[in-house]
Design brief:
The chain is mainly alpha-helical. The protein is built from four helices and no strands.
Length: about 80
Amino acid sequence: MPEQDDAEREFDLRWADSAEHKEPSARARMLAARWKENPPRPQPFRADPDLSAPRRSSWISTAVVLGSVAAIILLLGYANFRAPY
């Protein structure tokens, strides 16, 4: 078998794009098989978030972070104050 040079072995995208039949991706085939037996329920464009899980306030997170930073600063300051020079 004669060796092909790189230009001949290179995949031709125009040839692939002009193919009459395009095979679906593995995920598309998997979902089609799953939905054939158990079709999904219709969903609105933007479904409402799950209301059973309460969202935490961003103020609580901010207070926790700032409190942690203040505690670390005070701890380091206390450690430097007690360190003998």
